[in-house]
Design brief:
Helix content is 13%, strand content 45%. The protein contains 2 helices and 15 strands. It has a 13-stranded antiparallel beta sheet. A two-stranded antiparallel sheet has the order 2-8. Strand 6 and strand 7 form a beta hairpin. The longest helix is centred in the middle third of the chain and has 15 residues. Keywords: Membrane, Transmembrane, Transmembrane helix. This is Lipoprotein.
Amino acid sequence: MQKSTIQYLIINCFLAIVLVSCGSVTKNYTPKKLDRTSYQIPYFSDSKTDYIYKTNITVYGHEMSGIFIAKKINDTTHRIVFTTEFGNKLMDFEISETGFKINSIVSELDRKILINTLREDFRLLLKKDYILQEQFENESTDIYKSQDGKRDNYLFISKKDQKLEKVVQSSKTKEKFTLTFRSENDIFAEKILINHQNIKLKIELNYLKSE
C-alpha cells in the first residue's frame, strides 16, 4: 500500500463524515413474542485459530487491499493485525468490549477519527454475546434487538437454517453500519461485508484457507 493511498483514505473518508437519517430497521417486520433471551455468535471464538482474510476497502470509489488477521488471545480480547499484501504491518491492536490498546500503527493511519471508526467496526464484528430485548419477523427472517448503551444492535437470523445473516448497528435516529455474513458452517464466516450508511466506506473480508 503506497503512502499516498493511505493519505487518500484519511482525507476523503474519515475527515468528511456526512450524516444521513433513515427509517426504523424493523419497519417492514412484525413484532412477535421473544423466543430467546440471549444469542451467541460462533465466529472468531476459537483461540487456536488465526482468522486470516483478504481485505478490500472501498472509500468514495477508491479501492485499497491488504490482509486482516484476528486471533482470540483470552476470554474477552482479540488481537487484530492489518498488513499490506506484501506483509508490511499497518496496524496492530488488541480489542475487547471495554478495552482497546494499540500496539503499533503507521503514522499515516494514526488519526483519531479513523481509529474510532475501526474500533467500533471490529468491536461489533468480534462481539460474541448478545442480551435480547425484542423480536420481529417476516416470512424468512427473525430479527432480534439488543441494546448496547446508546446504540441498538439488530441481529437478522434466517428461519431456514438459523444462521446469522447480518447485524445492523443503529443509534436512536439512524442506522450506522451493517455487518453481512456468508457462512457455509457454524465455525467461521467465509465472507464478511462491513458497510457504513453515514460515510462512503465499505470493508470486504474474504477468508483465506490454509494450505
